[in-house]
C-alpha cells in the first residue's frame, strides 16, 4: 500500500466521487420506488463513508505520531 500523501488524497478524491455517484443512484432508485435497489446502494454508500472515515482517522493518527516524533528529536 502506498502511503504517500498525494496517493492518499487521490484515493480520498476517488472515494468521494464514488460516494457522490452512489448518492445519485440511491436518489434515482428512491424516485422510482425501487426499494431493493435503494437498500443495496445505501449499503454500498455506507461502506464508502466508513472507508473515508477510517482513512481520515488514520491520517489524523499519523499526524499526531509525526508531531510526537519531532518533539523527541
Secondary structure layout plus pairing:
Elements: H1 5-31, H2 35-72
Which features does this protein show?
mainly alpha; 89% helix
Q: Your description of this structure?
A:
The mean pLDDT is 82. The chain is mainly alpha-helical and 73 residues long. It is built from two helices and no strands.
Short description:
The protein is an all-alpha fold and 73 residues long. 89% of the residues lie in helices and 0% in strands. The protein is built from two helices and no strands.
Characterize the largest beta sheet: strand count, sense, and whether it forms a barrel.
none
Low-confidence stretches: none
Structural class: mainly alpha
The proportion of residues in beta strands is: under 5%
Q: What's the tally of helices? A: 2
Amino acid at each position: 500500500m502506498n502511503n504517500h500523501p498525494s496517493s492518499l488524497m487521490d484515493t480520498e478524491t476517488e472515494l468521494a466521487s464514488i460516494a457522490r455517484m452512489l448518492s445519485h443512484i440511491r436518489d434515482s432508485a428512491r424516485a422510482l420506488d425501487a426499494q431493493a435497489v435503494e437498500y443495496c446502494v445505501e449499503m454500498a454508500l455506507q461502506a464508502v463513508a466508513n472507508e473515508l472515515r477510517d482513512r481520515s482517522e488514520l491520517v489524523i493518527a499519523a499526524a499526531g505520531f509525526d508531531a510526537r516524533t519531532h518533539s523527541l528529536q
